[in-house]
Design goal:
- By secondary structure, the protein is mainly α.
- It is 66% helix and 1% strand.
- It is built from 27 helices and 4 strands.
- The strands form 2 sheets. A two-stranded parallel sheet has the order 1-2.
- The chain is globular, with a radius of gyration of 26 Å.
């Protein structure tokens, strides 16, 4: 009897799951439930024979499965917290199956990583050789897509630079100055495309420098095998996500590179402070990298301050170099004050549009409340809300995955008093309908953690908006070497969503969970000061809960840019 007890026990468990799913689905087994059942049963049989997983893998498995189950719930039922109780047995079965699956995947991943840690190629590789490799691999993209992709926001920035509209910092003003200057240079030669193409070329060289410097720094200071470093570098060189972002004009790539440059400096401060501050160029590079993190994205200042604070952890290691570090942070602080209190006011850069961006999620939450609980709002409430956003948009245009349909109706005529009264209504409704507000938050952010969801209602794109790459208000147009080629390149990447394995590069959740796994993998391995290097990515993940679009790929790009470097850190032998 003992010989068959294993199969009897697991067959009984499978039968219970089957009848529970049948019972709570109205006596019907739909295609999706049928699929879940046949994933669950064999995985449960397999896991019963395995040894206990490490605690790290158990925790990650549970979290991953929880987020995936929430995402499945969002897609199937359009709600999260307000689901009927009848769906929970099915969700529990789904969670259990994914939990088992991930334990198996993580165990095999650990085995693979341990095999890679064996000593290999120790031949030195210079930063120039790494840069050369990256630029050669990226060159075909540059030729095919010349002069480069144009992200959606760039048109408004160029219009500002050439005086069609007033200056504002809805998009980072430093980015406006950068792209405007290159386009102005191109116009001297009668071609905007020359300016855009030159901008992309400089951006590519800068990105190659930052990535090469980061990978060599990790290899040298954390004693990572150089053969592994080359393999990780090939991810930057060959995975299409990276070169496609490099070949597009936009703020996401440069901000990501600024973060990586700053993290490289901090690794040097932690590992070899005397050597770092012995080179005068580093005394300039450190505060400049903090400035770039702050100025290349409007939400960048908190991240820059966090990085500056993290660098202070190296003070205990610095023998006589504390003044140099504090001077660098002081130079960064002085630069930020000069930019915000002198330069922006001197150029009359408006900040009025920032309220529209800051209220993206509140607008979304209020839109959900207006749609599902319209009786909560009086005519006086409608009048107050109508001074801030279009009231018809608030009533009728709610989309769970995208706040733009409401946000774009923000009225620049709204005064601080109007916004204050709107905020009072928002707080009142939040106290009355907390689950409604939490549902709105889940709907706008779950796809960032779901490895099986493209998420955003906007189409996937990694190389900018080719179809509308003209700046109408100033009468200029970007012309491509081959008019159709950019469409083909973007189309190939967009359609790859449906291709197994390859389609993973289009899913935000895949990259997020790879990053989290790297973080969990080194919790007990590196000194605690090095673990703090992962905090910027964690902060960005928290910020994704407050983004105006669900699963928008470029919002996760800073984390995506960190993943190969994080993998290399996990391979460290130090």
């Amino acid at each position: 009897m003992k010989r068959y007890s294993f199969w009897i026990k697991n067959a009984a468990a499978a039968a219970l799951v089957f009848f529970a799913m049948l019972r709570y689905s109205g006596g019907k087994i739909t295609t999706i439930r049928f699929m879940h059942l046949f994933v669950l049963i064999p995985l449960y049989l397999i896991v019963s024979c395995r040894k206990a997983a490490e605690r790290k893998n158990l925790i990650l498995s549970g979290l991953f499965s929880l987020f995936l189950t929430v995402a499945f719930s969002m897609r199937e039922y359009k709600v999260f917290l307000d689901q009927p109780l009848s769906v929970y047995p099915e969700l529990l079965a789904f969670w259990f199956g994914m939990f088992i699956l991930l334990q198996m995947i993580l165990e095999k991943t650990d085995e693979f990583v341990n095999r890679l840690k064996k000593p290999g190629d120790d031949a030195p590789v210079s930063r120039k050789e790494y840069m050369k490799l990256l630029l050669i691999c990226w060159l075909p993209y540059y030729i095919l897509m010349f002069p480069g992709g144009i992200w959606y926001d760039v048109g408004g920035e160029v219009e500002q630079f050439f005086g069609a509209t007033g200056f504002n910092n809805i998009n980072p003003f430093l980015q406006t100055l950068m792209i405007g200057s290159f386009i102005a240079f191109g116009r001297l030669f009668g071609s905007v495309s020359i300016g855009v193409g030159l901008y992309i070329a400089v951006q590519a060289v800068f990105s190659a420098f930052v990535l090469s410097n980061l990978m060599v720094t990790i290899t040298e200071l954390l004693h990572t095998d150089r053969g592994i470093a080359k393999k990780c570098l090939l991810l930057y060189a060959l995975v299409p996500v990276y070169p496609l972002f490099v070949m597009a004009v936009g703020k996401d790539l440069n901000w990501s590179m600024a973060i990586l440059l700053c993290l490289t400096n901090i690794i040097c401060i932690f590992s070899s402070p005397d050597e770092f501050f012995r080179k005068p160029v580093n005394m300039v590079l450190f505060p400049v990298s903090l400035m770039l993190v702050s100025l290349l994205r409007n939400s960048g200042l908190p991240v820059a301050i966090l990085l500056a604070v993290l660098s202070l952890q190296g003070l205990g290691l610095m023998k006589g170099k504390k003044t140099a570090l504090l001077s660098g942070i002081g130079a960064f602080a002085a630069g930020i004050l000069l930019w915000n209190m002198v330069l922006l006011p001197g150029l009359h850069v408006s900040t009025v549009g920032n309220a529209k961006e800051n209220f993206s999620v509140p607008f979304l939450q209020m839109g959900r409340a207006y749609k599902y609980y319209p009786d909560d709002f009086s005519s006086e409430d409608d009048e107050i809300v109508g001074r801030v956003v279009d009231i018809d948009a608030m009533r009728n245009n709610y989309k769970p995955n995208d706040s733009d349909s409401i946000k774009e109706t923000f009225k620049t005529s709204a005064t601080e008093a109007d916004i204050s009264e709107f905020t009072e209504i928002y707080r009142r409704e939040m106290k009355k309908r907390p689950l409604c507000y939490l549902d709105a938050m889940a709907a706008i952010s779950y796809a960032y953690y779901d490895p099986d969801s493209v998420g955003s209602s906007k189409p996937f794109a990694v190389a900018g908006n080719y179809a509308e790459s003209r700046f109408d208000k100033i009468g200029i147009e970007v012309r491509y070497l081959t008019d159709r080629m950019p469409y083909y390149v973007a189309g190939i990447i967009s359609r790859s969503r449906s291709v197994p394995i390859l389609g993973a590069i289009t899913k935000c959740g895949v990259w997020i969970w790879a990053y989290l796994y790297c973080f969990a993998s080194i919790l007990k391995k590196l000194p605690r000061r090095y673990l703090s290097l992962f905090l910027p990515g964690i902060i960005i993940m928290i910020g994704l809960m407050f983004t105006p679009i669900n699963g928008y790929f470029r919002y996760t790009y800073p984390i995506i840019a960190m993943v190969p470097a994080c993998i290399l850190v996990c391979m460290s032998r130090s």
